[in-house]
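User: Fold this, then the next.

Assistant: Folding the first:
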Amino acid sequence: MVEEWLRAWKIPVGMRTIKTAVAVILSLLIVQPYGASQAKVVFATIGAMSAVGPTFRASALACVTQICSVLLGAALSILLMGLQIPGMAAVGIGIILILWLYQYSRTTLLPILPCLILVNICLTPGVEAISYAIARLWDTAIGLGIGMLTNTLVFPYDNSRKIRRTLAGLDSDLIRFLEDMFDGDEHLPEAAELSRKINALEGQLALFAEQRLFRRRRQQRELQTLRSCEDIAHELLIELETLRNMERQGCLNQENRQALRVLGAKIAEASPKTQWTTEDVVVNYHVARALQLRKDLRAELTGRVEKKKM
């Protein structure tokens, strides 16, 4: 709803951006009276921004990773100080180890947090490493908790509408494709753009599968419906690519011609045929198959909407 309003007013700000700002503000309001260190606003902000991910699973992974980052920075600092390594040398060795560990674990997060903790502990005279680490962990946890709650409960990300719009848009793409193919000129339509849209559905469905913490059964039913629609869309693409790659175009029969005109396609007139070639039979089979898949796709989408209303 909010995302549609933003698009309607042409505001170039996504919902995730707004949720991140809300999470940061709430974290700062809470960490001010309840924080445990002087740099509490910095660590709360880092935590809040990290926890607002595109899916629930991504947010949970970010929270776990950030907590581990704080513990890693603190543990490494305590180890280096215990070995009585001079401050600057300890920072250099520690940063090398942290960067190596992050690179080896192939995490997508930046190693800023453990490096900040390492530098502060190693270069601050008289600092109590354990209490410092606990304070940083608490401040970061406030940001992570607020960010997680904001991302999960406040306008949770739901790309099912985007997937449905893409699937519904295939209807007009199909009509344009067939219209361009049988409009009487020698130019043949391209299926590359249609293929790109359909292939992009897999990534969107993967995001949808990882979104919700609550209403999992409802989400699974919706996911099953959308995956069925994706399968139909792939079958439709195969039919169109088969038509596009035929050596001879063939001639539409009256049934397919009338069906396309009812859908609004501008099909060129053709003289009556007394004898149908193999190419004509094949092309009409694939056109009829494509039109049937279109009906199946619309029925799948419409049927889901009707179930929701019930």
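Now the next one, as you asked:
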Amino acid sequence: MISFPPCKINLGLNVISKRSDGYHNLETCFYPLPLTDALEILPTDTLSFNLSGNAIPGDAADNLCLKAYKLLQKDFDLKPVAIFLHKVIPSGAGLGGGSSDGAHTLRLLNNLFKLNLTTEKLKSYALQLGSDCPFFIEDKPMLGTGRGEVLTEIDVNLHGKFLVLVKPDIHVSTAEAYGGVLPAVPLTRIREILETQSVAAWKDVLINDFEKSVFAKHPLIGAIRQQLYQCGALYASMSGSGSSVFGIFEKPVDLKSQFGDHFYWGNML
């Protein structure tokens, strides 16, 4: 069985408060993009994990695809599988590629072994893999609150817009990003902005709280966002805690030559 795990961007990201469990309460809109990895799972005699495409830092044994298999194996008598992951989504980019791979592994295993897990049950397993993993169980725009795992549908549609994604060779650690943010309740909530205002009006009101400190430490990321605006983007922002930056355009543009050796992707939504 094969699946194509998508990445996501964050339309706005507010860090609301610090929690007693060490996490933060957030408010963000997760929006899926048609930039995907490729994931195939086949029955076999011995559990294996096979990676192609972009390299993934760290030990392969810690990959979320394997963790997803072992998580379900605790509750179900799963036979061994061969997992083949072709990695296209850049890592450490604030795009949730690893989380998507883990969530889609749960989905494929559910179908392959006919576990009959409901969407909500799959989300509960996904949450054990990571705070943004539950979003990828359904792959549709969602408002995320709590740690990002409390998901509610939101009326936002970028269909017909052109999106450019640029990722420089910079790694921003999650701890570094949170360390530069002072939690606060925003004046205008993300749902109100997205459901009542046009994309062209988002520039000054739809904020990613991580940008201020990340741009200060990594000026190149901020410069990319500014360059996207100079090229005509209706809205541009860093995704998640970075380091990727996206720009939303009214019509197709080809800016690849302007962003040198950075990872570049452009596509109609």
